[in-house]
Amino acid sequence: MKLVSYTHEGKSSYGVLRADGGIVDLASRIGQAYPTLLQLVQKNGYAEAQQVLTGVTQADLQESAIRYLPLFLEPVTIHCVGLNYAAHAAEAGHKLPEFPRTFIKIPAALVAHNEDFEKPTLSPEFDFEGEIAVVISKTARKVRAEDAAQYIAGYTCFMDGSVRDYQFQRTLDQGKNFYRSSSIGPALVTLDEVGELDHLTLTTIVSGETMQHTAFDNMIFTIPKLIEYISGFTELHAGDVIATGTPEGVGFSRTPPRFLQKGDYVEVIIDKIGTLRNQVS
Question: Where are the alpha helices (DSSP H) in 25-157?
């Protein structure tokens, strides 16, 4: 399933995005048990959602009629990973990391699919990073990599917007948390729909030009290893997000640098998961 949160006519809801662009509203059918998408994830309500789909022949809404929310209505913890592809580490002038480099992104930094980024006024160095993100299905603490699949609710697209001079000259947290500089979505895609990740690809396009393209088997630390590492030092909860890092091709490493300008649009495209699209305003 491709599960989405959205507003329609001023009301928040959630549902399933179908291949034809129609949306089956779940909140109106199972919302008493699972009022939001996050609560459906927390309470493992996928069987009930699938049962709804089995009995529905027509969509309730078209995708064009909704405004997406950033995956969940409620705030969750967003763990981000840096330098998780060898070629990106090289272009950034770093050695291969011995362990995952992580940081936190705050909810205020995120917008949803089709919403505009806010171009920073304090810096001209607004950069793009396309990524795949994994969503946690249940409380996870000291999980072994071989058991990690039990803790995965699904995957989504992620754009880790980075303000480079703040990141490099001030602090990483500042450079990664400018208001409305990053995005997530459009859907939480469940494991059964995605299958094995290794040979799937990620592509980042900026205003029609392909900037990044890689297969996920190029990751230094696999998603199970990331879950093992992060759950080793903290407790993960259902709905928490791990953005797994970006491949080579980011804007600051290019000659000349290619930073985002007003009017640019960024698309993060992942096989079987979807396309996350945002414009810079």
Answer: 27-30, 37-42, 46-54, 86-91
